[in-house]
Design a protein that fits this description.
The chain is mainly alpha-helical. The chain contains 14 helices and five strands. 35% of the residues are buried. Strands 1-2-3 form a three-stranded parallel β-sheet. It folds into two domains: 212 residues, Rossmann fold (3-Layer(aba) Sandwich); 73 residues, Tyrosyl-Transfer RNA Synthetase (Orthogonal Bundle), CATH 1.10.240.10. α4 runs parallel beside α14, α9 runs antiparallel to α12 and α10 runs parallel beside α12. The chain is 57% helix and 8% strand. The structure holds adenosine-5'-diphosphate and tryptophan. The site of tryptophan has 11 residues, from β1, α7 and β4.
Length: 322
Amino acid sequence: MAKILTGIQSTGTPHLGNILGAIIPAVEMANSTSDESYLFIANMHSLTQIKNEKILKENTFSTAATWLAFGLDPQKTCFYRQSDVPEVTELAWYLSCFFPYQRLKLAHSFKDKSDNLKDVNSGLFSYPMLMSADILLYDADIVPVGKDQLQHLEMTRDVASRFNNLMGETFIIPEAKIHDNTKLITGTNGEKMSKSKSNIIDIFVDDKTLRKQIMKIETRSLSVEDPKNPEECNVFRLYEVVASKNEVELLKKQYLKGGVGYGEAKELLLNKILNRFSENREKYFKLIEDRSKVEDLLSRGSKKARVQAQKVLKRVRSRVGF
Ligand code: ADP
Ligand code: TRP
């Protein structure tokens, strides 16, 4: 049986783009596979960017609650918090002693981040070693990630091979499984929806706030009677990813014919989102009120993960002579 493992950064409450583009497909995959699966919240990686105890805790919590609200089954998937398995930092150190500094310097993600962030700390630089440890600590075979993480996976494979060659067979060499991000969700201004672009739709807010976000979607200035091009409308693009095929076809016809205003289309979109995600929102709000339940699930997951981590770490310690 193969082991599938992936990590998610907890940089904020997941938005509609994260949910449709990453969370729903990952939950479907985890729940339908007969393989063993591990999913963790990479809150130690988030520390490279977030230096506020409350925010870091809150983000970890809201990320965990979102995954659970979208049906992640913690009985089937080992669901845990990275910081609850501190063995990962010990392994990261060993790995960094086997990986050339010059190779680490070539990481694109470090380059991108160091060009854009004020706080360029050395954690950001050694990020790929912690990520390699996340993976190798569990003998993972398959790691589903987005394209932007491919280089980190190559580094993981590289450091594992270097270690194996020098110290004897120790690590499983993992394979990346790239999600094809065909479903790129656009935000309220028509660009890719992203936290950093202030164009998100956050479904875990009260109805009034959700309505405000939707009313903010940028549209052209056309009158109700004017025919409209669905392809270039931000409201329509969002409706397309949440509504059924028939509903989308119907709105498309109305757009092309004229007679439907952007205000009406926004109402339609709002009702669709409220409808489609009503169960998930209810679950999320319940979890937010009962934090102990999320805490309890995460600690149980972490206990299970830690048993596995300690086994692998013991193997590594003996290889290096400790
Ligand atoms: P953000 O751009 O808001 O910071 P992240 O980079 O943290 O989002 O992405 C987390 C996950 O969500 C990744 O798997 C990414 O591919 C997916 N994702 C992010 N934004 C979108 C989007 N607009 N459409 C589809 N998937 C997205
Ligand atoms: N770096 C990944 C991201 O930003 C998150 C991550 C951390 C991860 N550790 C991991 C993903 C291990 C897969 C496996 O998306």
